[in-house]
Amino acid sequence: MIAPGARSEHPRTNATTVAFLRGINVGGHKKISMADLKKAFESLGFKNVRTVLASGNVVFEAPGKDRALADTIAARLENVFGFPVKVVLRSVGELQAIVNADPFKGAPSGPDIKLYVTFLSETKAGRPVRLPPRPSEGLKLVRVTPGEVFSAIRLSAEAGTPDLMAFLERAFGKEVTTRNWQTVLKLVGV
Predict the structure, then answer these.
(1) What's the pLDDT tens digit per position in 68-126?
(2) Across-strand partners of 148?
(3) What is the 3-state secondary structure of 13-69?
């Protein structure tokens, strides 16, 4: 047992964290090579850094996860790459809990249905929102939690992923980032 105020002899263990970077490598804008991105994270002293896909998903080990960590990463990325990059963090444990909760159970399914998770930043999480009108009948908000929004969209000539992204930004602001459900599953399996 450790006395109050005494320090443990065990250093704080590193937590495996995922950084979701908003808007990089989309439509030829804000291009970042995954090798350079990995080096930028390693330069911050993070361990076991690896990138997953080219859409701005970085898995790394760091001592804890908090708002200051996201700000530190964002500042470093802007310094290295010359443009601001919004960073949203989740621990691998948080992602595993999301997967275990099976948020898309009972949601529409089929080859023309895409499932997405929108991660709210720490500054947006838990705030009440007024949802704007849906852009199409093909869009369904499956579940909204204090930190994530789960949505399904039936792709058609009238609706697509850009419509969903615009809707989510109107509802939750630009301090969010969205990933395909398959990407989230891949990150948990990393």
Answers:
(1) 899 999 999 999 999 999 999 999 999 999 999 999 998 878 888 999 999 998 766 56
(2) 119
(3) CCEEEEEEECCCCECCECCCCHHHHHHHHHCCCCEEEEECCCCCEEEEEECCCCHHH
Q: What pTM was computed for the model?
A: 0.84
CATH architecture designation of domain 15-94: 2-Layer Sandwich (3.30)
Integer Cα distance of 25 and 21 in angstroms: 10
The residues near 67 (Cβ < 8 Å, ≥ 6 apart) are 122, 123
CA-based nearest residue to 122, from 176, 80, 52, 85: 176
Going from the C-alpha of 140 to that of each of 102, 108, 111, the distances in angstroms are 16, 9, 16
How many Å apart are CA 34 and CA 115, to the nearest integer? 25
- The pair of three-digit structure tokens given for residue 166, joined into one six-digit string: 């615009």
Question: Phi/psi of residue 67, each to 5°?
Answer: -60, -40
Per-residue pLDDT tens digits for 14-70:
789 999 999 887 777 788 999 999 999 999 999 999 999 988 999 999 887 677 899
Question: What's the one-letter identity of residue 135?
Answer: P
- Contact (CB, 8 A) for 125 and 132: no
Calpha distance 51→38 (Å, rounded) = 7
